[in-house]
């Protein structure tokens, strides 16, 4: 049972106390004994078993920790896989009803700062107004992030916002897998800045929602500074002649 977000790790057994843990899979015989699983079905219930140890995944009686033990006649060893309904995950972040959060980079206020190249500053303006607690202006964002002929100097929003930009680890020339991270951010009720490219041209949008599994450009919902509207990521790419999803910048609510 391998982690989707970190494929070097699998569900494993702690050799000292039989606790269920996550650990690196190195392919050795001992690691295989502690991590290779199969399932058994019993009266419609599923047991998860360490195939080479004969131990079953079990919930502690008094808390919510898991451990491996011999087969027992207990509901604490029964599991089932369910498709989670849309009501139990967050398909769109909380968007304010009393502030403008979908600005266009071609409004005079933004163009007076950035000319026609203000998509990054506009993304920060949108995020500041999503977080609130009040309406922020493009000039207030400019005072924090600054601007030069090469673009933003800092990924920052005012400290009075009920949230912040988390640009740690962001490499302007780097590439990362965006979709799983974007979905997790949205489920955590945080917007995410998504970087797009077409040859040497760059465009930024703000991810605010997803449909389906959120695993493709047609399933992510974004605010597009190019028009000041909400589209799927694919529609925003088409409207701005972008071909590649390359990177992201995280945010976090306070």
If you had to describe this structure to a student in words, what would you say it looks like?
There is one protein chain. With 254 residues, the chain is of the alpha+beta class. Helices cover 19% and strands 30% of the residues. Strand 7 and strand 8 (151-152) form a beta hairpin. Helix 3 crosses helix 4 (138-145). The longest helix has 13 residues, at 119-131. The mean pLDDT is 91.
Low confidence ranges: none
| Sequence of secondary-structure elements | EEHEEEEHHHEEEHEEEEHE
Q: Strand order within the widest sheet? A: 9-14-10-11-12-13
> What does the radius of gyration come to?
23 Å
| Main beta sheet strand tally, sense and closure | 6 strands, antiparallel
First CA to last CA: what distance? 34 Å
Helix content: 10-25%
Number of helices: 6
Mass-distribution shape: elongated
Strand content: 25-35%
How many β strands by DSSP? Answer: 14
Classification by helices and strands: alpha+beta
Q: Which helices and strands, and how do they pair?
A:
Blueprint: E1 9-13, E2 20-24, H1 29-33, E3 37-42, E4 45-50, E5 55-59, E6 66-69, H2 108-114, H3 119-131, H4 138-145, E7 147-148, E8 151-152, E9 163-166, H5 179-187, E10 192-198, E11 201-210, E12 220-224, E13 229-232, H6 233-239, E14 244-253
Antiparallel strand pairs: 1-2, 3-4, 4-5, 5-6, 7-8, 9-14, 10-11, 10-14, 11-12, 12-13
Give me a quick take on this structure.
The protein is 19% helix and 30% strand.
What distinguishing features does this structure have?
254 residues, alpha+beta, 6-stranded antiparallel beta sheet, 4-stranded antiparallel beta sheet, 6 helices, 19% helix
């Amino acid at each position: 049972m391998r982690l989707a977000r970190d494929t070097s790790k699998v569900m494993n057994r702690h050799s000292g106390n039989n606790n269920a843990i996550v650990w690196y899979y190195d392919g050795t015989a001992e690691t295989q004994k502690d991590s290779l699983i199969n399932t058994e079905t019993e009266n419609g219930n599923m047991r998860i078993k360490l195939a080479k140890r004969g131990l079953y995944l079990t919930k502690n009686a008094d808390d919510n920790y898991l451990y491996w033990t011999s087969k027992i006649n207990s509901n604490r060893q029964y599991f089932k896989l369910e498709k989670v309904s849309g009501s139990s995950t967050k398909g769109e972040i909380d968007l304010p009803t009393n502030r403008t959060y979908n600005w266009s980079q071609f409004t005079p206020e933004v163009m007076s700062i950035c000319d026609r190249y203000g998509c990054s500053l506009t993304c920060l303006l949108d995020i500041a107004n999503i977080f609130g607690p009040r309406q922020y202006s493009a000039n207030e964002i400019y005072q924090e992030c600054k601007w030069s002929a090469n673009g933003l100097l800092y990924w920052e929003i005012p400290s009075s916002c009920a949230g912040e930009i988390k640009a740690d680890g962001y490499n302007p020339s780097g590439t990362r897998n965006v979709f799983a991270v974007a979905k997790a951010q949205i489920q955590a009720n945080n917007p995410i800045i998504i970087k797009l490219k077409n040859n040497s041209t760059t465009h930024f949008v703000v991810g605010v929602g997803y449909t389906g599994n959120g695993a493709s450009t047609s399933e992510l919902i974004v605010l597009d500074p190019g028009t000041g509207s909400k589209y799927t990521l694919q529609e925003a790419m088409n409207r701005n002649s972008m071909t590649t999803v390359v990177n992201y910048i995280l945010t976090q609510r306070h």
